[in-house]
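Record 1 of the preview.
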Amino acid sequence: MEIFRRIGLEKAVRTAGLPTEQVCFYRGRDLVDADYVRTGLAQDSGESTEHTPSPGLI
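->
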């Protein structure tokens, strides 16, 4: 995303990506693990642990 930002394409790429609220990650031993952990992407730069002006995107 930082490369896209530097060449002026970040806004277009973000428009084509999934909305942040629709992105979740599931972590567990397998797909039916009862002890899974569900996490989402940070909603704004204050919530992120990433040290970047352009957080990741799917």
